[in-house]
Write a structure and sequence with these properties.
There is one protein chain. By secondary structure, the protein is of the alpha/beta class. The protein has one domain. Helices cover about 35% and strands about 20% of the residues. It has a seven-stranded mixed β-sheet with strand order 1-7-6-2-5-3-4, with helices on both faces. It is globular. About 5% of the residues have low confidence.
Length: about 220
């Protein structure tokens, strides 16, 4: 089985703290029995299932890939509702319009002003500091179109917030969202040095592209 550098070995993830269920004790929660039912119905309609389990961490950066289709958002909403987890996610601020604005904010949407990346980073760090439990999902490609490299910002955010990274993989071949694995962010070194954010980002990208498959083959 493929293994990533800085991946936390399964025997070191403190299995005593990980529930048998997919949602561990320290996960931020949202919703109720009715919203979980709605989430299950959404996943059933799109034909997707969830495999694996989240790491038992109160704070972490989640990355979901490959991101190739708008259907990824529907799967994300179904996952959040069906499991009852609060996963904050960044979206371009232009997407927050009526009638979707209220829904996105309720589910954990964070408007992203792409014209001011520094302000976004400051606001993100504040969220990690101010909340006892905070899961932030980031799409490392930054677009649905095919890309040859990922942005390393998710590793820098995890490093600065002193939290781990959790990988979710979309596989359209089996219609499965995999709650895959926990990864420690690379230490801060020179951009081209061993263990740098750029290097680690590429290692994770290669791992994802080898193991998973996006919904839209044209963008894979």
């Amino acid at each position: 089985m493929s293994k990533l550098p800085n991946q936390v070995p399964e025997d070191q993830v403190n299995q005593s703290q990980v529930n048998q269920n997919q949602v561990p004790e320290q996960a931020p929660r949202i919703g109720n029995a009715f919203t979980r039912f709605i989430g299950r119905m959404i996943l059933r309609m799109v034909g997707y299932k969830i495999e694996g389990k989240f790491a038992n961490e109160p704070k972490m950066v989640l990355i979901a890939a490959p991101h190739t289709s708008n259907w990824d958002l529907i799967i994300a909403i179904g996952t959040i509702l069906s499991l009852g987890v609060r996963i904050n996610f960044m979206m371009k601020k232009e997407a927050f319009f009526f009638p979707l604005k209220g829904l996105f904010k309720t589910l954990g949407g964070v408007p992203l002003d792409r014209s001011s990346p520094k302000r976004t980073v400051v606001q993100t760090m504040k969220q990690f500091r101010d909340n006892e439990k905070f899961w932030l999902a980031i799409l490392p490609e930054g677009t649905r179109k095919p890309v040859k490299s990922w942005k390393a910002g998710f590793i820098r955010i995890a490093r600065n917030a002193n939290v781990p990274i959790f990988l979710l993989g979309v596989d359209s071949r089996t219609k499965t969202l995999h709650l895959d694995r926990l990864i420690q962010p690379a230490p801060n070194t020179k951009p081209k040095g061993s263990g740098s954010a750029i290097k680690q980002t590429e290692e994770i990208r290669v791992y994802v592209m080898d193991k998973f498959y996006g919904i839209n083959p044209k963008n894979h």
